[in-house]
Write a structure and sequence with these properties.
With 230 residues, the chain is of the alpha+beta class. The chain has a domain of 44 residues. 27% of the residues lie in helices and 37% in strands. The protein contains 4 helices and 12 strands.
Length: 230
């Protein structure tokens, strides 16, 4: 009788722990998943390019307030809809994906790229995801991926070919100062140099010594790392 009682107690404790674990997992999911789901879209037929930063799901992680809340999940960024889609894994044949909450407290890492959700100061651009290019105490730089739809054209004669519809990808860099202001980073080499040199006298010498062209992303990274270390 005593043994049966102990077995029942042990079973009750195990079930309670399992129930609590399931509840915690559900709560964790609710922390970063929206109530929305979306079909796993394969792409438009007879169209060049894609509405995604990468049309394939890739392994990634999700963070809330800087803390890891999910890892080894399959993610992809829908640029057109400004959504991060999620599947349990890249091999899953699921036809429906979950959607991450569009929240400034939630960020994702897809492979080695970090994405954050920001409110843009540009009235012509809605809030959305920005890729982190460089982050420092003095200056942070984000990249905004843009997908423009360009309508195709039928060939005018038998000597030319049809031009298919195309999603053309563009990029725009933004900087965030220590005061939190988000502004477009100029594209010209000279304008970018002036932006950094006006803040730190050493930058002019560093740029010249290392023969940096700030229009090149690699050189811009190097200059920003040095700038934030000053």
């Amino acid at each position: 009788m005593k043994n049966n009682f102990l077995v029942l107690v042990s079973l009750f404790v195990s079930l309670n722990m399992l129930s609590q674990s399931m509840t915690n997992d559900q709560t964790s999911d609710n922390d970063y998943l929206s109530s929305k789901t979306t079909p796993v879209f394969k792409g438009y037929k007879n169209t060049m390019g894609s509405i995604y930063a990468n049309k394939e799901f890739q392994i990634g992680s999700i963070y809330k307030d800087g803390k890891l809340v999910a890892s080894n999940v399959a993610l992809r960024y829908n640029v057109q809809a400004e959504e991060i889609e999620l599947k349990a894994n890249t091999n899953a044949s699921a036809t429906v994906a979950n959607v991450i909450k569009a929240n400034q407290n939630i960020s994702v890492r897809i492979l080695n790229d970090d994405f954050v959700y920001l409110i843009s100061p540009d009235k012509n651009q809605k809030a959305g995801y920005f890729m982190v290019i460089a982050q420092g105490a003095k200056l942070t730089v984000y990249k905004k991926i843009i997908k423009d739809f360009v309508e195709g054209k039928e060939s005018a004669n038998s000597y030319s070919r049809d031009v298919p519809d195309t999603f053309k990808e563009k990029e725009q860099l933004y900087i965030v100062s220590s005061k939190g202001h988000l502004t477009k980073l100029p594209k010209g080499k000279t304008k970018r140099e002036k932006l950094l040199v006006s803040k730190e006298d050493q930058m002019s010498t560093y740029i010249q010594t290392n023969n940096l062209n700030l229009r090149r992303e690699k050189d811009l990274h190097q200059a920003l790392d040095y700038f934030n270390a000053l």
